[in-house]
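Sample 1 of the test manifest.
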Amino acid sequence: MIELTDAIGLVEQTASPLPPRRQRLLDAAGRRLAEPVVADVDSPPWDRAMMDGFAVRSADVVDRAADVIELEVVADLAAGDVSTQPILAGGCARIMTGAPIPPGADAVVPVESTVGDTAAAHAGRRVRFREPRFRVGQHVGIRGAAFRARTPVLPAGAILTSAAIGLAAEAGATHVVATARPRVAILSTGSELVPVDAVPAYGQTRNSNGPMIAAAVAACGGEPIQLGIAVDRPEAIRAAVMQGLAADVLVLSGGVSAGDLDLVPAIFAACGVERVFHKVRLKPGKPVWCGRLDRGPGQPPAVVFGLPGNPASSLVCFELFVRPALAILAGLPRDRWHLPRRRGVLTAEAKSAADRPVYLPCRITRAGARLDVMPLPWTGSSDMVGLAVADGLVALPAGVKADVGVDVEVLEFASGAGE
Ligand code: AMP
Ligand code: MG
């Protein structure tokens, strides 16, 4: 059994950043580009109307702009329409935002500048307008003004925000090379487990860890791959573990403590997974197992976790050990590897185990500069009721009974609701 800080240190040493991957544009949202995005088109792609109105020849307007000007409408151009018919002196085209400016025209007079009842003038009619502040070339988006084909529009290192995704999409990037989203295989072991949609019979337990770990992986920016349930038979677990080892990370739950059917450590060993640690001085979560599978030179190792089966233990171990591993694989900076640790003041008493530090669900509220920490009722490792509404975990060293007002350490959950 090792100390928690040592175990966390070992996780940090075991995980290393994944090489960048070519991925579908949308899958790379939030990732960092490893190669620039190069446009395959100009933007605007052609000279384009930026207002609804009339495409005119500036020469017909510029010296008479203070007067009412009358032009003949020779074409109607909606977005998507193209015209090769040139606009000659005295003519114009009715044009909608987004349509290509027809040959001969070089400015747009907005529909708001029309006079009389000519705003609705279509081809074959005449339009009258007054545009005292007319500028040559007004309201035309010039081809290539924003970016040019075959030039980079996003540099390596840029974060793919929604805006960057929009720009890359316009530039024709269906795929990008960006920091990898760790692929995380999730496996639940236990002959008692049944899928979530089943009503458990006597002796059966729903596989609640499956969706819980998948959600936690997704919240950390990983890509969950659900392998479902393996019964407590060596062949069944071994086959599923082999499948899971193809991913960047395997997170298994159950079968790592000291019971007769805790087969997992031996199976990991048989599959070539090297143990990094097993058992940590921690409550809940003592049986946790961590290892690595080396895949040869130049290949990042698979990081492997065996989390205790009890859901609260699984979640606490995920937050303490799996979260930093995923952050490191994803190439995040060190200050984003762990949940933030803060100091707060207990508003109800709390106590730890005699032999191990505890991490208990708590509410955290801000009282000015101070954090108030209220431990939530918790009946043990299988009890998710408090954790499900917790803002974080209050950490107490071994053998402590802390009264109201005592200064404590809390691990604050990232607010998952997107509020
Ligand atoms: P184990 O770690 O396999 O000894 O399991 C400890 C406890 O956790 C047992 O009561 C299991 O039934 C329960 N458990 C194991 N796996 C899961 C799971 N995937 N979902 C919910 N409970 C589980
Ligand atoms: Mg079990």
